Amino acid sequence: MKNNLKQNYLENLRGTKLNSKEFYNEVLSVKTIPKFNYSWATGIAIGKFLNGLKEGKILASICSGCESKQVPPMLFCHECFKPMVKMEKISDQGRINTYSLAYINTDATRRENPEIPIVIDFDETINTRRGEPSGILHKLDENSDLSKIKIGSRVKAVWKNENDRIGDITDILYFELMEEN
Ligand SMILES: [Zn+2]
Question: Ligand 1 mean position to 127 CA, how many Å?
């Protein structure tokens, strides 16, 4: 009895009845390729750092209080909280702080040769409280000899051609292993 009432109700509704093909393909669906343009402020210190990369320079910030020299540059010191008012070009050489061998791409497909993300400690940085250097995450040359990759291995930046640089972290193509002395 209940089902009959429901059936009567549905049959007496006004409007045009749609089958599922009409419903999903013709009435309520829109097919489009979205294109979202956006801009993202880098901030003062990182903005200067990225502009430095465009010129082939690694810029470190220098603390007005404790003389820490840090990469990536900051506006205030993470050691003593004083303003970091100066920036200075430092060497693009350093040592591997840590690394990984990544055999899986971001879309989960397998790689034959690993991508090698590394954290680089730049030689000329100094953290006054801990006495340690600082640096950035980047990647090592994929053609590197895997047996020579160690924590502490020496590396240097390989830059894009000057005319191709855009003020982005990819202005450094990768880091390469240096011959140990
Ligand atoms: Zn400081």
Answer: 8
Ligand 1 geometric centre to CA of 49 (Å): 19
Determine the distance separating the centroid of ligand 1 and the alpha carbon of 44, expressed in angstroms.
18
Flag whether 8 is in a domain. Answer: no
Q: What is the CATH number of the domain that holds 109?
A: 2.40.50.140
Overall number of domains in the chain: 1
Average pLDDT over residues 109-125: 95
Supply 70's token pair. 């840090």
Confidence of residue 13 (pLDDT cuts 50, 70, 90): confident
The alpha carbon of 178 and the centre of ligand 1 are apart by a number of angstroms equal to: 31
Measured in Å, residue 47 CA sits from the centre of ligand 1 at: 21
Single out the residue of 53, 50, 79 nearest to residue 67, CA to CA: 79
Q: How confident is the model at residue 179 (pLDDT cuts 50, 70, 90)?
A: confident
Q: What is the mean pLDDT of residues 58-82?
A: 93
Mark out the alpha helices in the chain (DSSP H runs). 2-11, 20-22, 44-54
- Ligand 1 center to 87 CA (angstroms): 13
**What is the pTM for the complete model shown?**
0.76
- The set of long-range contacts for 156-164, using a CB threshold of 8 Å and a minimum separation of 24, is 156/92, 156/93, 156/94, 157/58, 157/92, 157/93, 159/56, 159/92, 162/56
